[in-house]
Design a protein that fits this description.
- The structure is a single chain.
- The chain is mainly beta and 271 residues long.
- The protein has 2 domains: 90 residues, no CATH class; 159 residues, no CATH class.
- Helices cover 0% and strands 49% of the residues.
- The chain contains no helices and 25 strands.
- The strands form 5 sheets. Strands 11, 16, 19, 20, 21, 22, 23 and 24 form an 8-stranded mixed β-sheet that branches. Strands 1-2-8-12-13 form a 5-stranded antiparallel β-sheet, with no helix packed on it.
- β12 and β13 form a beta hairpin.
- The protein starts with a strand and ends with a strand.
- 31% of the residues are buried.
Length: 271
């Protein structure tokens, strides 16, 4: 077995993955465990997600025995005329919006702007060729589902982040299976804004590598003066908090042009 992950940085788990026929290679990324095997006409990928934890471990163990795979593991089979020698691993953000809560609800005064640092779970995209021929997306930790909206008829199904947003970057745990987003909120309305929940549309964000951490571009939510509308603006590149960054993944979806002006209730929620 050989692999092209960054050997100088053991927390880098994306890149090229190559395996000899018949070898079972075990890969741990935080709470997710994978057993990956190549055969002459098949790649076989077994995946098991453990309970929520904040492990920062990334570990690759080559050529383990079949007995190492637990019975409850889900196994996917991908057949080919001739199996490619290399798979491509890409980190991806969630496929729907994530609802974020701050550590404690707080008021943003009229005219004030604050930055909240939030992390969201990542998916591992496995492809048979670079940037295409996707085999499957695996959640490294699948968040629970939640409904975000003013009623059961108005809103959308989202994921709920179990980790709270923080006002200080130093308070954020840097975990390899999560990406960090600087969320800037500007309250232009005359009245204070009570921040309890925010809908974070991560499917429109790109991913950047800085050191051994994955970041997204920044996202700015602006509550307009009327109070009933909110603007949504995406950073054009890596966030200003990092000096050196390398783009490693594009957004899942292209942002709509009319997202610059949306109903307040589509982005913020009380209670």
């Amino acid at each position: 077995m050989s692999f092209a992950f960054d050997s100088s940085n053991p927390k880098i788990w994306w890149g090229e993955f190559r395996a000899n026929e018949g070898e079972i290679n075990a890969l741990d990324i935080g709470p997710s465990k994978f057993w990956i095997t190549r055969y002459e006409q098949e790649w076989r990928i077994a995946h098991l997600q453990e309970e929520a934890n904040d492990r920062s471990e990334v570990r690759l163990e080559p050529n383990v025995g079949a007995s190492a795979i637990p019975l409850e593991t889900v196994i996917n089979h991908f057949s080919f005329q001739q199996s490619p020698k290399t798979l491509f691993f890409t980190p991806m953000l969630a496929d729907r919006a994530v609802v974020i809560k701050p550590e404690h609800p707080f008021y943003i005064q009229s005219g004030a702007e604050v930055t909240i640092y939030v992390t969201t779970s990542l998916w591992l995209r496995i492809s048979a060729s670079e940037h295409r021929d996707v085999l499957k997306d695996y959640p490294l930790y699948r968040p629970s589902d939640t409904w975000f909206g003013s009623s059961t008829r108005e809103g959308e199904l989202c994921y709920a982040s179990r980790i709270k947003g923080r006002l200080r970057l130093l308070d954020i745990a840097m975990l390899p299976h999560r990406a960090l987003t600087p969320l800037r909120i500007h309250n232009k309305a005359k009245e204070p804004l009570l921040l309890e929940k925010v809908r974070l549309p991560v499917m429109y964000l790109a991913l950047y590598k800085s050191g051994n951490m994955l970041w997204t571009q920044s996202l700015t939510l602006i509550r307009e003066e009327s109070g009933d509308l909110a603007a949504l603006r995406f950073g054009k590149a890596a966030p200003r908090e990092i000096a050196k960054a390398e783009r490693v993944a594009d957004p899942r979806q292209r942002a709509e042009k009319n997202m610059v002006s949306r109903a307040f209730s589509r982005l913020f929620s009380h209670g």
